[in-house]
């Protein structure tokens, strides 16, 4: 993946640490997605990037929002989305959360248990509920655990309970796992969806939509060994289109998708700086080079255990390199890129204060940032977009 000119210009102009979002890039990816999946409504999974200007841009393009609780609902409303385009996608919610969401105007709730359905019927009477189906998560960098979703047979029982409780059983949802790298996972999800949809029709429960969840990948990550991940986007989109045709042949339903990472990851980049490159002899007797950066696990790069971000040292293109372990600035040994298992080639000549760009770091960055662990403050957020005055000549 190439670094686009908007991000490059903003990173070049940055004279202090920050995270930059390319708003135009996010809008373009949104448009490309709706082009790949015509007629599918997009509800951005807010936790991937709960940044006002990003939410406003997506809302302006027609996106709604997948939210996890009243605070995200309030933020989505503030970004301009109507309550009808916001759903409560978290299966975990207290009575108070349900009542607050209802008061804010939300009428679409995810669920996966009879207990939760009973609570929704009490706190948000007459609302619409969609049942989340569990998936294996195979093929994803972050396969989801057993925390959310129920079996196909359970889903039938849950939606029957919803109907009996005066709620509208409105849909089914899945999440194939975050950064899902295979089309196969989607095919498997459609198998389960087809079974449940058919079973529900036998019970005269007629849903109006299927929510395809998140999981669409970012394009610009490397694996922990430094090899570029190449998600098979064409295959994935073909599998989704084929699956939708299959479900439409069972019942006249609409589709929703909840991308998070896919819309923002490649359009955010961190400008950090080099703290120091050191060489130390370990207890094992091995001599190791360590490059410490001003940004790490606790101030923007929480996901550094699973992916290797591409690093660019703009002052040192070409030149001698050294294989170094790379780590963030805190005293926590978890704050080490790739769990300290893989070394990364870095310029031998870097010195303290040199800028470094950390690419494809736009997803789950601001949201996973600590308030200032060890005193390292969250990164200021900046924006690049078409039409903005370009401060330097690139
Ligand atoms: C986190 C989440 C998403 C987004 O997942 P990505 O892998 O970032 O696309 C979508 N839906 C739900 C319910 C989620 O919890």
Q: What is the CA-CA span between the terminal residues?
A: 18 Å
Number of DSSP E strands: 18
- The CATH first-level class of the largest domain comes to Alpha Beta
Which residues form runs of ≥5 with pLDDT under 50?
389-394
Helical amount among residues, as a percent range?
25-40%
Number of helices: 10
Q: List the bound ligands.
A: pyridoxal-5'-phosphate
Query: Any idea of the CATH topology of the largest domain?
Result: TIM Barrel
Average pLDDT: 96
Kindly estimate the percentage of residues that lie in beta strands according to DSSP. Answer: 15-25%
Largest sheet: 8 strands, mixed
Name the helix and strand elements from N-terminus to C-terminus, one letter apiece: HEHEHEHEHEHEEHEEHEHEHEEEEEEE
Radius of gyration from the CA trace? Answer: 23 Å
Question: Could you say which structural class the secondary elements and strand pairing correspond to?
Answer: alpha/beta
CATH architecture of the largest domain: Alpha-Beta Barrel
Q: What is the name of the CATH superfamily of the largest domain? A: Alanine racemase
What is the overall shape? elongated
Number of domains: 2
Layout: helices, strands, pairs:
Layout: H1 5-13, E1 18-22, H2 23-36, E2 41-45, H3 52-61, E3 64-67, H4 70-78, E4 86-88, H5 95-103, E5 108-111, H6 114-123, E6 128-132, E7 140-142, H7 152-164, E8 168-173, E9 178-180, H8 184-202, E10 209-211, H9 233-250, E11 254-257, H10 261-264, E12 268-281, E13 287-293, E14 311-312, E15 321-327, E16 344-347, E17 355-358, E18 381-384
Parallel strand pairs: 1-18, 2-3, 2-11, 3-4, 5-6, 6-8, 8-10, 10-11, 13-15
Antiparallel strand pairs: 1-12, 7-9, 12-13, 12-17, 14-17, 15-16
Helix pairs in contact: 2-3, 5-6, 6-7, 7-8, 8-9
The structure holds pyridoxal-5'-phosphate.
Pyridoxal-5'-phosphate (PLP) binds at residues 45, 47-48, 66, 89, 175, 178, 213-216, 258-262.
């Amino acid at each position: 993946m190439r670094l686009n000119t908007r991000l490059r210009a903003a990173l070049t102009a940055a004279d202090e640490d920050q995270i930059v979002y390319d708003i135009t890039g996010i809008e373009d990816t949104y448009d490309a997605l709706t082009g790949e999946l015509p007629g599918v409504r997009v509800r951005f999974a807010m936790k991937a990037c709960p940044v006002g200007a990003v939410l406003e841009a997506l809302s302006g393009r027609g996106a709604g929002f997948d939210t996890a609780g009243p605070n995200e609902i309030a933020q989505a409303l503030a970004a301009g989305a109507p309550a009808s385009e916001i759903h409560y996608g978290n299966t975990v919610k207290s009575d108070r959360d349900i009542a607050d969401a209802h008061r804010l105007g939300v009428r679409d709730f995810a669920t996966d248990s009879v207990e939760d359905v009973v609570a929704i019927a009490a706190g948000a009477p007459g609302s619409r509920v969609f049942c989340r189906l569990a998936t294996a998560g195979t093929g994803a960098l972050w396969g989801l655990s057993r925390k959310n979703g129920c079996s196909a047979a359970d889903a039938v029982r849950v939606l029957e309970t919803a109907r009996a409780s005066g709620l509208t059983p409105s849909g089914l949802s899945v999440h194939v796992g975050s950064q899902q790298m295979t089309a196969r996972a989607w095919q498997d999800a459609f198998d389960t969806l087809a079974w449940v949809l058919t079973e529900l029709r036998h019970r005269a429960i007629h849903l109006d939509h299927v929510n395809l969840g998140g999981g669409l990948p970012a394009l610009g990550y490397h694996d922990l060994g430094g090899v570029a991940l190449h998600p098979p986007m064409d295959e994935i989109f073909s599998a989704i289109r084929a699956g939708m045709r299959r479900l439409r042949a069972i019942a006249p339903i609409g589709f929703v998708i909840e991308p998070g990472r896919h819309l923002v990851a490649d359009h955010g980049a961190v400008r950090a700086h080099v703290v120091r490159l050191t060489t130390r002899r370990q207890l094992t007797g091995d001599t190791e080079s360590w490059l410490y950066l001003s940004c790490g696990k606790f101030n923007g790069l929480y996901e550094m255990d699973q992916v290797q971000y591409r690093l660019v040292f703009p002052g040192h293109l070409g030149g001698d390199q050294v294989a170094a372990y790379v780590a963030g600035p805190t005293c926590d040994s978890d704050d080490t890129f790739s769990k300290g298992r893989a070394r990364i080639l870095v310029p031998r000549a870097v010195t303290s204060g040199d800028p470094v760009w950390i690419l494809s770091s736009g997803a789950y960055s601001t949201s996973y940032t600590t308030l200032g662990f060890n005193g390292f403050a969250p990164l200021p957020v900046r924006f690049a977009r078409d039409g903005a005055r370009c401060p330097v000549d690139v």
